[in-house]
TrEMBL record:
Keyword set includes tRNA processing: yes
Pfam families, per the entry: dCMP_cyt_deam_1
InterPro entries: CMP_dCMP_dom (IPR002125), Cytidine_deaminase-like (IPR016193)
Gene3D superfamilies on file: Cytidine Deaminase, domain 2 (3.40.140.10)
Family: Belongs to the cytidine and deoxycytidylate deaminase family. ADAT3 subfamily.
GO MF terms held by the record: tRNA-specific adenosine-34 deaminase activity
Ranges for domain CMP/dCMP-type deaminase: 144-296
One GO CC term, this protein: cytoplasm
Protein name (database record): CMP/dCMP-type deaminase domain-containing protein
Length: 311
């Protein structure tokens, strides 16, 4: 399914959502037959930087009338050498008739997403290797399954509301089998306990393998609780599992999702006050943390909004 028609949006990391930032370089137009000589000169005489690995050395510009083209070559970063020093180097090698450096701007960073690539290459050609794991393709059938899970989370939020609780519902699903392993809602009001958030309750459910019922959720089929198969699974309760939650998890719940090694998170409404997966922080992509997961927002958001209006 095309990314533009998905019923949710990926919550991008800082790198993925970065806007164009530029850095100044020297470039020069060159005649095609002199290109190899110029490249040799650059390689042997000009300061080179590893930070330019993402850009191409040569740019080809087709003339607007479609007849002919101009080749331009990237020489080096401007902060590595002054223009006068560079011109002296060029003169020394008797290349001043074929090299005439001028300052140009290029993208400072490599493009991570196709959107960045399409935009940033307009300045100067850049290398781009699309990682298919970054933008997974969802089939229509998969979307319908994901929707049914989200609707189940919304039903739980409705149930919470009818019980006088805060209307947030959550389920945990085995992403391979599609089996619902745990479901809960916010229980802060009835428990008078500040930590009884829907997401934490759901994770807590997974740690209780013998549990057979969920209070006030008797209308729902209670799934068989999984038995932890090894030490790793015992430590990482949500390994390989997806979470569907009506509202963006708070920072505390987001950290619990990191610690339990969740596979993916789908949520509906953003939480601008304390959301940890997009609004206040992007904990799922934080470089300093040792587990990262994909997060998608805006899923069936309208239905969740209606639920809040009804409150
Ligand atoms: Zn929370």
């Amino acid at each position: 399914m095309d990314i533009a028609t998905l019923p949710f949006q990926k919550v991008l990391s800082e790198e993925e959502s970065r806007s164009l930032e530029t850095v100044d370089v020297y470039i020069s137009d060159v005649e095609p037959k002199e290109t190899s000589q110029v490249l040799k000169f650059i390689q042997e005489n000009c300061p080179q930087s590893k930070t330019l690995c993402h850009v191409k050395r040569i740019k080809k510009t087709i003339h607007s009338d479609g007849k002919g083209f101009t080749l331009s070559v990237l020489i080096c970063l401007t902060f590595s050498i002054s223009i006068n020093e560079l011109k002296l180097l060029i003169q020394k090698q008797n290349l001043d008739s074929i090299l005439n450096p001028r300052v140009h701007q290029i993208s400072k960073y490599p493009a991570i997403t196709r959107t960045q690539f399409e935009e940033w290459k307009k300045l100067w050609p850049i290398n781009f290797h699309e990682d298919p794991r970054r933008e997974p393709n969802f089939t229509s059938e998969e979307i319908e399954t994901l929707k049914s899970h989200m609707i189940r989370a919304i039903n739980l939020a409705e149930m919470a509301k009818s019980c006088g609780e805060i209307a947030v519902g959550c389920i945990i699903v085995d992403s391979k089998s599609g089996k619902v392993l745990s479901e809960s809602y916010d229980k802060r009001t009835s428990s008078k306990h500040p930590l009884r958030h829907a997401t934490l309750n759901c994770i807590d459910e997974l740690s209780m393998p013998e549990r057979t019922s969920i209070p006030a959720a008797s209308d729902f089929i209670i799934p068989n609780k999984r038995k932890a198969e090894d030490d790793d699974d015992q430590t990482y309760l949500c390994k390989g599992y997806d979470i569907f939650v009506t509202h963006e998890p708070c920072i505390m719940c987001s950290m619990a999702l990191v610690h339990s090694r969740v596979n993916r998170v789908f949520y509906g409404r953003s939480n601008n006050l304390s959301g940890g997966l997009g609004s206040c922080y992007k904990i799922h992509t934080h470089e300093a943390l040792n587990h990262h997961f994909k997060t998608y927002k805006g899923f069936l958001e309208d239905q969740i909004e209606m639920l809040e209006i009804d409150c």
